Amino acid sequence: MVARTAFVAAFVSRRTLMAGVSPLMALAMVSPGTAFAQTSGAVRPDVPVQANTTTAQQAGTPQDQSTAPSEADNSPSPAGEATTADIIVTGLRSSLQRNLDIKRTATGVVDAISAEDIGKFPDSNVAASLQRLPGVSIQRSGARGEPTGITVRGFGGDFNTTLYDGRRISTATGGRQIDFSTVGSDFIGGISVLKTPDVSLASSSIGATVDIQFPKPFDHPGFRAAVSASGSLQDRAGHVVPTLGALVSDTFADDTLGILSSFIYTRRDTDTNRVFVSGWPGGNFAPCQLQGSTATVCRPTFDPNADPSQRRTLTGWFPQQYGAEQQRTQDERVDGRVALQWHPSNDLMVTLDNNFSRQTISTDVYGFGVWFSQDALRNVKQDANGTAVSFTQAGSPTDFTAAMNKQILQTNQTGLNVKWDVTEKLTVEADGAYAKSWLNPGNTIGSSNGDIGYGGALGTNLGFNITADSNKAFPSISNFGPAGNGGRWADPAVIGSHVTVLQTQKNTDELKQFRGVVTWKEDNITLKAGGQYTDDTFNLLNRSTFTNNFWQAYAGYGAPSGQGSGVSPLPSSLYQGSISLNNFIPGFGGTLPPSVLVYSPQAYQNYLTSLGNPQAQNVPGFNYNGGVNGFTGQFTEAVDPGSILSVNEKTLSLFFSGKMEGQIGSMPLHAAFGVRTENTRLRSIGQGRAPTVITRSAADPTLLSIAFTDVQPISNRSSYTYVLPSVDLRLEVTDTLQLRFDASRTLTRPGLSLLNPVVGIGNGQRVGALSGSGGNPNLKPYLASNFDVAAEWYYQRNSYIAVDLFLKNVSNFIVGGVTNQTVGGVIDPTTGNPAVFAITAQVNGPDATVRGVEIAWQQVFGDSGFGFQANGTFVNTNKPYDPKIVGQSGFAVTGLANSANFVGFYDKNGFQFRTALNWRDEYLAGFGQNQNTGSYGAEPTFVNQSFQVDLTSSYDVTKNFSIFGEALNINKNKQSTHGRFKNQLLDVFDYGRRFTLGARYRF
Fold first, then answer.
1. In whole angstroms, what is the distance from residue 605 CA to residue 553 CA?
2. TonB-dependent receptor plug domain location, by residue (predicted)?
3. In 3D, which of 978, 395, 491, 943 has the Cα closest to residue 701?
4. Rounded to whole angstroms, how far apart are CA atoms 279 and 802?
């Protein structure tokens, strides 16, 4: 540890000098006297890093596993060099050797994952495989426990570009990243993770470029087929759900035509328990609110002339909303692929392919929630950081919530690729693709939510208490139940209607792209030149009952609450039982109420609709004084004009690159250089409106309604151009030891949804939590100067040790801050003063430096079948987040965390077993929480340390038939997050374990 620390410190101490060096200056490392001549020595196989770097002839060359290197010979002979002792090896060890060959022979810094055989990828999820690589860690969906995204060297989400066979993928989510749970892994051929850019492919990722390669007919000429079937069981869901897949490939007409088709159906059912705090807003307490105060009256105010005990002068944070829920998720995914190839001669290869995916995630949610207002808190006890660790609140309402959520993400991409070897030295490639993605197409309702409960006269003097940090315990509440009667916590006799919310996000993303490359190869020199054009159009629209204020139609909880509206009691037929909250999150401390109710929000909504049209007749319980105008009994969504956004982004890129091979003394040197220019033109169109009147609901004093001016279109145009150079050097010091140096400049564009030219104020607001959001159409991309210095020792076949030091200087950071501002002078009825909105917006901010080291070790123990992979990544930055600086909001490098992975395996005689241990330290995920209304800007969200153990195994019953099993999260790891300080719990998800058993047959 001491040696590593000293090594990193020595590297970091030179970061300022390195940051000022242009990447092209690295060419000066090759002295003028260096001879670039034909390299002598052993010949290694030409292993492509990306699928689209091959010639037409190479594209038609079979990928024959019989060329896999020996596992019997442990001598440090170069990868791929045959020996008389060679033994043909397939399966996991063969895949690891191919991955090693790609890493070893690549000019830049590349890690790879290869399928063990057609239809046999190492993991059931692409992101799960990627996390085994050095420098790569994953983000999980809390509700499903599924890996959905990756972070590379501390840069996650939009900082990484994912390609299908070298092509960008459209995504209707509004960001640049993809959800890896939408990518079926069953029939993937391989994945390359480029940590340094290939300018002929892309330079639009500061983290890494992930290229997913799909199989094609001429990868394996002749007839090939594979089928797989499995069943998976999540321990809490309690039932088995299927995954089915089939792939068929054939070449015919004297191997001049080929077709491949695959289909996969995947289903995952997960029941997840969640305890949450929706946000920890920062604000000010008055001394009269504190525990031990002797004030007889407490009216917190900002009036500087008020009594000191009443003035809000004490900095602090409080929980906006607290609750628990069970989420029952059904995740269904359909993947289909067709690839046609025409190979009339060795000089020409034409490939036409289509990729289709459709993921439907349906979630039923049952829970409770209690709402807190900072002004209403009493007996407040703050810790040394200002967090309200205990308090009481009089009159606290209680909501029992139910929701039916659905998200459909559908993508279809069609591409045509032509490779023509004009001469033995000249190859021309043209590639074009059209893709479109839809979020919630058709008449899908994204979320149908019902809230019922009690409040008003039945509100309780609720107690709240924090006993430990967020990775150990959730907060405890006490004195719950109607008027503090815990025995009637879920008594239907006093439960009435509250609010009903329908909400649907409907996005589309249409992507057109074309790429042309000319390649010249002569002896030890390869030159490439070409261009790429992309046209991306993103459209966003949100529909909800917030827009027309129908969500408050029956708010008020009914007569027992003492308020003027709402229906109580509700029909007993609505209730379908309850879920116990006893031992809800095993291993976590904290106290919860006894249970939550199970009911259908649609049945609840249908019951309220059956009461009739309140405009045509008097309907008892309707909220006539809540500004619910136009409601005729039907809960229909209305389009939120402020959510309408259309962004068009056109990018023209030109690139030139070269590769040369030479020698420095007797040491082979491989050099690559390149430059890419990117010109981007943007047009964004939004819909703007301003608030005119805010009214407080008479039925529920926590709810607000807003009236607006007419909608007006607002548009903006912008453009930018950047030059992105790169250089890669690889020196073979000996047959087993090589050194690398890489320097480049890359960029990451802002998410398309951030480019909205409008500041939007939503209609669904709460007292003390007025908020809005706005984009910035003039945002410029993040820019990074990147440097890598690495040493790799391939000391025996299928084994190596590598150390890579990296540094990234990033400028133009996009700061997602929150400012408190008035909008149009509209008055807040709860204060009588101009309403103050917490407006979230983005601007380009300062720069930061990220540096770190990756250490990787792969060891195969001869022909024993045993081996392991181990890696660790250690990163830090000169701009860490300091939670004690109240004004520091919206800027810090996110995603940075140390991580480590270990995979131990046995692979011999048809039997394979793997144990994977994955660890990631705590990290700052980003700024902003579910309730983002604090006085100090966007509060942070941290993800706590995680450690997960997975097991996989398979057995080849025959040459063609195998069975396999998988046990995920056997140590029952939980995902938890916190706010500015460790005891500010935001979420804890317990998604349990998953078991899979299945079979494969290939012929």
1. 11
2. 103-207
3. 395
4. 43
